[in-house]
Fold:
Amino acid sequence: MPPFTVLHVCMGNICRSPMAERLLVLAVRERLARSRGGDVPAGLADELLHSHSAGTGGWHAGEGMNPPAARQVRSRGGDVEGFAARRLRSDQIDAADLVLTATADQHEYVLALRPDAADRTFVLGEFGRLLPMLDLSTLPAADATAEAVYARGVALVEAANTARRGTNAQPGDDLDDPWGRGDQCFSRVADEIEETVQPLAATLLP
Structure:
């Protein structure tokens, strides 16, 4: 039940998945601001959508976001406060309406933990590639309420899963691991994340 919950997964949960987590939150807030003329009540975005993340390994559990990843989120208007890395657990997958992994390997890791999550687990780039192919007119009406976002989100995931049947994720769907690399690499990865999370927010909200 509401809010619509998106779980982002990468390896260490300090670079790619935290950026995806917070950039989706930012995209939702910006979408709400446009639809409401700039007036977004505190906490409304969190009531409509829960975006969180975890890593397939626990090496960095409890750590904050990797500094260059945090710089990317802040430079785009997002918030990094309160973030702490954690290792992926089965119950997090169970509670997610949509699981977005950084790579195909992490997609396989999620399904090894929870095979029944296959219909709602995608490589992030794969989901972004599928979005423009979907007939959004078949989805429940968009509205800035928790119930409407949840219903539209669940239907969107079902439509994306139907659209990908008989196909596989493509190598270009994976996000490069920017850990230990420069700000230019982090910027490129953040751009690729936004190519999926911004259309996702735009699809979920009016």
